[in-house]
């Protein structure tokens, strides 16, 4: 079975007219279908597939026992969704009461706008961006209401995690590690926030910026840390939302992340056969030599193969994902300085919390 074959089989019925692909999958051998189901569930697509197979019951792809696993996934996600929404509403009420400007992003935000049944789109945690000046106030307000705080030195430059009712809330004052970008994006992005019926979130272009850039630097794009559900989000977002591509291009250029966005666009094409607008992809693509090199990583899925050696991925993929040599040099220099003050920053946050 060719490279990315399972990716395409798992995604195609969710992104295109399902019947031809379900017919193709029905003809596969039982062991291959069993492996496909494992792949589907590992990539957070179980509930979506359960919903799909309910709509097309004539396709007897999986045994009754395996179908029950998908049904269980759906029920567990529905329960988790309700708890997460309760916690999100609690956080929103606390922040509104304290006049803390915030925006919810990633899965918890987009699932409300893209899915008729939002619970089929799982979210590991609730991601929220606030201004750095509000961090101490936000942590104090949440811990006073019973949230427990966890501060990790490796993430203390941009986020902390708070837990409530077994739900994790990742509180960010930078969406990415700040040394990744030419300047802080927090103020600009919070100025772009919108009030939706479900929560305060970002506008179309800012959400798409996060979809295209965040997985490259934090999940290594196609590794086991980056579930395929994000490609469903991405394609549905582009299909349903009116994107100002020139505006988005301008934001990528200013923050120095065109290459990272191009990497996601290339992976998207490899695993789904679908593409972002050609003109946009052409404008964000790196130089011929760099894209030839990065295409080797994409073609052979090197990030997944090198998962036991994250330093090699960081050097070989995420460092070249910086737009320019000077961006890469800045990252290496400032990352060292950031690590030196991480323990002190952690103490400051914990002290302020008390």
Annotated CATH architecture of the largest domain? 2-Layer Sandwich
Q: Determine the strand fraction and express it as a percent band.
A: 5-15%
How many distinct domains? Answer: 3
- Major pleated sheet: 5 strands, mixed
Helix proportion: 55-70%
Shape: globular
Order of helices and strands: HHHHHEHEHEEEHEEHHHHHHHHHH
Measured between the Cα atoms of the first and last residue, the distance is 56 Å
**Any low-confidence stretches, pLDDT <50, length ≥5?**
none
What CATH calls the topology of the largest domain is: Beta Polymerase, domain 2
Q: How many helix segments?
A: 18
Question: If you average the pLDDT, what whole number results?
Answer: 94
The quaternary structure here is: single chain
- The total strand number stands at 7
Which CATH class of the largest domain applies here? Answer: Alpha Beta
Strand order of the largest sheet: 1-2-5-4-3
Rg, please? 21 Å
